[in-house]
Amino acid sequence: MINGSIGIQNSTGKLDLNRTSEGMPRATRARTAAARKAPASTRANATALGEIKQRLNTLQSRHAELAESKEQIEREMADVATAIEQVEAELKATVAAPISGGDDPTLWLPDELLLLILGLVAFVCDTCSCSLVCRRWWKLCQEQSVKGAWKKRWELYNDAMREPRELAINHISALCAGDKDTFYCGTIEGSICVLSGKDGSLLHTFTGHGDMISALALGLDGTVYSSSDEECTIRVWSGEAREPIRSLMGHAGGVYTLAANEVNLFSGSEDESICVWQCSTGDLVHTAPNLGDKVQSLTLDNRDQLYAGLDNGTIWVLSASDYTPLRSLEGHDRGIWALAVHKDGTLFSGSSDGEIRVWSGTDGAELQVLRGHDCTVTSLAVAPNGDLFSAGEDGRMLAWLDGGYGSLEIGGPPNSWEPRLAFTRVGRLWLVSGRISEY
Fold first, then answer.
1. C-alpha atoms less than 13 angstroms from C-alpha of 136 in its C-beta half-sphere
2. CA–CA distance from 372 to each of 181, 348, 350, 415 (Å)?
3. Mean pLDDT over residues 264-292, rounded?
4. Given this model, what pLDDT does residue 267 score?
5. Res. 120 pLDDT band, cuts 50 70 90
6. Considering the entire predicted model, what is its pTM?
7. In angstroms, what CA-CA distances link 160 with 83, 310, 401, 412?
8. Average pLDDT for 111-140
9. Which three-class secondary structure string do you get for the chain?
10. Confidence of residue 78 (pLDDT cuts 50, 70, 90)
C-alpha cells in the first residue's frame, strides 16, 4: 500500500487513484469538504425548509381531522332534522286532537248525524274550533262532506245566491277583528267604532285623531292601537275600559301600519323606519331606520319574525325579539300593501302589481305566485282553517280555496277604495270599503 493521499491498492493489487488513504472515495470526500465550507445562509435555508415541511404536515393532519369532524356534524344534523320532522308531526297530531277518546260530548250521536251537524257548522262559520274538541270530531272534520260545506258557502256568493249583510256605518277606512266576536273600524273622520260581531250594533266610539284612520291593531290583552297616515302619532286605547291610555310619538312621518304581540307594538311609517314600543309602558325601545322606502305593511308570525312590506316591492324579515334584519324577499316590482301569515308560518304578500306571492316562513323561498287581481291587492286575510282571501282596487274579492291553486270570486267591495278584510275567530269575514259587509 502506498501511504498518503495519492491512492491505495485495490484487491487486485493495482493502484486505485479514486480512493484516499482513509478509504473514502474522493468524490464523497470532496462533497463533505464542500459542505463544511458551505456558507451559513445555505444551512439556514435547509433548517427553514425542514420547519416549513413540519408545519405543512401539521396543517394537513389538522385538515384531515376537521374533515372527519365535518362529516360527523353533517350526519348528526341529518339525524336531528329527521327527529324534528317526527316531533313536528307528533305536535301537529296532538294540536289537532288534544282531547283523548272518552271526552267526546256526542258519543250518543252516530257518525252520520254528527257529520250533518259539522257540515252545517262549516257552512255557517268554520270547523277549525270543532276539530279541537276530540279525536272523533277532528277525524270527521277531515271528511269531504264537511270540507265541501265550507266551500259551498263561498260558491253561493259566487253564484249570487247569497248576499252579504250590510251594516249602516259608512266612511270606514281601517278594520281590525277582536277576540270576543267584536271588531274595530276606523273612519275617515278620525274616530274608531267598536261593533258587535253578532248583530253589527255599535258598542262604543273612540275619538281623538284629527284625520283618517290608516291602521288599527289589537294587543293580546285587548288594548287598541290606532294611527293616521297624516299624523306622526299613535294612540293607545283601553279595550276594556274604553278610554284613552297614552299617545306615542317617535316617527317623523305618517304612520301607515301597525302590528302587535304580547310584548311590543311595531309601527311602520312614511319616514322609512319601524319603531318598536313596549306595550306595558309605551316606551320607545328600538328604531330600525333607513329601510329603503316607505313601510306600508307589517305582520308577525309564530316564529318570532316580523315582516315589513315597502313601497319599492321589498319585504324585510326581522327578528321580533332583537330586531335584527334576517333577510329580504325580492319578487314584487311595486309596493307591498298587504301581508298575512298562515298558521303554518307561510307568508302571503299583496302588491300594487296585482300579484299575491307565497313565501316559505322557514327560509323565505318563493313558493308560488297567485294571479287573479287586475291591480293593487290592498288586503289579505287568512280564515281559521287556513284558506286565503284577498281584496283589491279592481273591486274583486277572491277566495283561494283548496290550497290556493285556484281562486273563487265571491263578490267584491261596493267601491274600489282600498278595501280591507278581517276574519273573526268563529269564521265571520268582514269587508270594509267605505261601508261594512259581513260574509
1. 14
2. 30, 14, 11, 18
3. 94
4. 96
5. confident
6. 0.72
7. 49, 36, 18, 11
8. 75
9. CCCCCCCEECCCCCEECCECCCCCEHHHHHHHHHHHCCCHHHHHHHHHHHHHHHHHHHHHHHHHHHHHHHHHHHHHHHHHHHHHHHHHHHHHHHHHCCCCCCCCCCCCCCHHHHHHHHHHHHHHCCCCCHHHCCHHHHHHHCCHHHHHHHHHHHHHHHCCCCCCEEEEEEEEEEEEECCCCEEEEEECCCCEEEEECCCCCEEEEECCCCCCCCEEEECCCCCEEEECCCCCEEEEEECCCCEEEEEEECCCCCEEEEEECCCEEEEEECCCCEEEEECCCCCEEEEECCCCCCEEEEEECCCCEEEEEECCCCEEEEECCCCCEEEEECCCCCCEEEEEECCCCCEEEEECCCEEEEECCCCCCEEEEEECCCCCEEEEEECCCCCEEEEECCCCEEEEEHHHCEEEECCCCCCCCCCEEEECCCCCEEEECEEEEEC
10. confident
Nearest one of 153, 218, 236, 216 to 180, comparing CA atoms: 218
CB 423 within 8 A of CB 177: yes
Chain-centre distance of CA 374, in angstroms? Answer: 26
- Computed over every residue of the chain, the mean pLDDT equals 81
